[in-house]
Design brief:
Blueprint (H helix, E strand, L loop, with lengths): L6 H25 L2 H12 L15 H4 L1 H9 L3 H23 L14 E2 L24 E9 L12 E3 L2 E3 L7 E2 L1 E3 L4 H8 L8 E14 L3 E2 L2 E2 L3 E12 L11 H18 L6 H16 L12 H31 L5 H16 L1 H4 L10 H6 L3 H25 L3 H20 L4 E2 L3 H8 L8 H21 L5 E2 L1 H5 L15 E5 L2 E7 L7 E8 L2 E7 L10 E7 L6 E9 L11 E3 L5 E3 L4
Parallel strand pairs: 1-2
Antiparallel strand pairs: 2-7, 3-4, 5-6, 6-10, 7-10, 8-9, 11-12, 13-14, 14-17, 15-16, 15-18, 18-19, 19-20
Helix pairs in contact: 5-7, 7-8, 7-10, 8-9, 8-16, 9-16, 10-16, 15-16
Length: about 600
């Protein structure tokens, strides 16, 4: 046996050996071909060897495994368990349908149908659809009808600017006045504002058309601040309760408890990942009929036929997507999972959380993920920044787990394809890329195919967002034309430049004559709004209007109300472009207007 060397000598030799090894390693690395270096990077991305497959070790395993163990003990045969599943679904459907019977037609005291209104329904249609002087929205008075409103209308806002006298109203409920409401107000919003209808449960009432009214005050009541308007409008309405109507309560709260109970039982007692399909159908029906049903036909006696039609239309393609999601994502996450309680709380709870996004995400100040909305909506940019930070943190965590399982490279390749597809879509001329929330869910769902507690929660939320997007809004296109994306919004077009009007006083009237700078070459005419009602639409040189160069407006001397005028060009296709900001014709006959350039 050789003697042990002193520590100093042994360390010296060791240091020399290490130094030599390091130099040799550096020389070797520097001489490696580029291909070998790349292989080293790929090897790093491939993760540890062997891979560390993630699985959830349940808390209190005996408690969490008890429900499926009890089921297997009582009904050991799969066929009997399938029959029990069918019985549970039929029982849920029977209870669910019994509550939906409250949406059948209702009569008022005179035997007439109570009409169903959506949260955005009004008596005066948007964007010149009422015609000159509102002819197509008559009658203006001596008419009343009973109506029924759904719940949750107080938070429904306009998403494009609406002209209300001198104001351009956006991102707030369109309720104008108090007591007497302007005809273009949301009827259900006005009913909540007046106290006739509950925001939480909806309700019924009676609307009476009262013709022209002036001086609409702005008052805050029942969580809605109405918009003031200090001039006249040809259509107004008042609201009152009607005790002759047996108005059923909105069933969505009761249906939530019913759907949540049955879905929880399915999640607790079923250990197979195929339980996705009955739960998916249950939640899809809940959104379609209860928590966030789509808009139905205007002023119909019952919304059920429309909701049934849209449910049947959308469920089949959505179910096909669910099959693909199951094989690519859900099966890997739920297979072999014994943490039944954690699955129910995280995965199913996240599913309901995402499916009810009209409640759970309603506080986020982002209505639509478009550049126009992000610029205009207060707080939208900050909210988007916070969401992106959270999303990056979530993605970083998921990337780490995919790396541990050795699946990072294939998922990087998949998301690389997604990014290429998005870039190609952005480059297609004539259309705009629109990432709806159901598309966002489909893009992010593959990144949740892990059996970890965070993945259970993320996957549930994304499944819920997918269901809500389809059941409420259908498969809206990822590529949309500018016109479809704009809806009733502004064209961002050139507006007329109005010259200082000639104002004269004749025979008890004030006569204001407006003219404008020459129109662009592709313009065929001009439209004029007075107090947000189209009062004239003239076309240049069409043989009827002649050579239109001015617009004349007459008002009686002594009328103490201001009048608000806006002007817009009309195209050859008779489309009315953007209106100017409101110019004010004051009671004393003076005029002021902020010009846009």
């Amino acid at each position: 046996m050789s003697p042990i060397q002193p520590n100093s000598e042994r360390d010296e030799g060791h240091d020399d050996a290490v130094a030599g090894a390091e130099l040799e390693f550096e020389d070797t690395v520097s001489q490696l071909p580029l291909k070998a270096r790349r292989a080293g990077i790929l090897g790093l991305l491939q993760g540890p060897r062997p891979p560390r497959i993630q699985s959830i070790n349940p808390l209190l395993p005996s408690v969490q495994e008890a429900p499926p163990a009890l089921l297997n003990r009582l009904l050991p045969r799969k066929g009997h368990q399938f029959v029990l599943l069918c019985v549970c679904l039929l029982l849920w459907a029977a209870v669910f349908v019994s509550f939906l019977s409250s949406q059948l037609p209702v009569k008022d005291g005179t035997g007439r149908d109570v009409v169903n209104l959506d949260c955005v329904d009004s008596l005066w249609r948007r964007k010149n659809e009422c015609g000159i002087d509102g002819l197509d929205c008559r009658p203006f008075s001596n008419v009343s009808f009973a109506f029924r409103c759904p719940a949750r209308c107080a938070s429904v806002q306009v998403l494009n600017p609406r002209a209300v006298g001198p104001l351009d109203v956006n991102y707030r409920p369109l309720v104008i006045g108090a007591g007497a409401y302007r005809g273009d107000s949301f009827v259900c919003g006005a009913a909540i504002h007046s106290g006739i209808v509950s925001n939480a449960k909806g309700g019924c009432g009676r609307a009476s058309l009262n013709g022209e009214h002036e001086d609409y005050p702005g008052v805050k009541r029942h969580g809605i601040e109405s918009i003031p308007f200090d001039s006249y409008f040809p259509l107004s309405f008042s609201l009152s309760s009607d005790d002759s109507i047996r108005c059923p309560t909105d069933p969505r709260q009761a249906l939530l408890f019913i759907s949540l109970f049955f879905a929880s039982m399915l999640s607790l007692f079923a250990s197979s990942p195929k339980i996705l399909f009955p739960i998916f159908t249950l939640i899809f029906a809940h959104v379609s009929f209860a928590s966030d049903p789509p808009s139905a036909s205007y002023r119909n006696s019952t919304v059920l036929p429309d909701h049934l039609s849209m449910f049947a239309k959308r469920l089949l393609p959505a179910f096909f997507c669910a099959v693909v999601i199951y094989w690519t994502t859900v099966k890997r996450t739920l297979s072999g999972l014994t943490a039944q309680v954690e699955k129910t709380v995280l995965w199913l709870g996240g599913f309901f959380f995402g499916a009810m996004s009209n409640y759970t995400f309603d506080w986020i100040p982002i209505s639509r993920l478009t550049g126009h909305d992000l610029e205009q909506q207060p707080g939208a940019k900050i909210a988007l920044s916070i969401i992106l930070i959270i999303l990056i943190a979530v993605i970083a965590g998921q990337v780490y787990y995919f790396w541990l399982e050795g699946r990072l490279l294939q998922y990087l390749a998949l998301y690389g394809l997604f990014i290429v597809g998005i870039l190609i879509s952005l480059a297609i001329p004539g259309v705009n890329l629109r990432i709806h929330h159901y598309i966002l869910a489909l893009l992010l769902l593959p990144g949740t195919s892990l059996q970890t507690r965070p993945s259970l929660l993320y996957q549930g939320i994304l499944l819920g967002l997918f269901v809500n997007g389809i059941a409420r809004w259908d498969f809206d296109s990822i590529l949309q034309t500018t016109e479809a994306l704009r809806g009733d919004g502004q064209f961002e077009s050139v507006v007329p430049k109005i010259l200082e009007p000639a104002i004269s006083f004749t025979a008890g009237n004030v006569i204001a004559t407006f003219s404008w700078v020459s129109p662009p070459a592709d313009v065929a005419g001009i439209s004029v709004l007075v107090n947000d009602v189209e009062r004239d639409r003239a076309f240049f040189g069409d043989g009827i209007d002649g050579d239109v160069k001015s617009f004349e407006w007459t008002r009686p001397i002594g009328m103490q109300l201001n009048e608000y005028l806006r002007f817009a060009w009309v195209t050859n296709g008779r489309a009315v472009l953007d209106y100017t900001k409101a110019g004010t014709l004051f009671a004393n006959g003076t005029w002021t207007m902020e010009q846009e350039y």
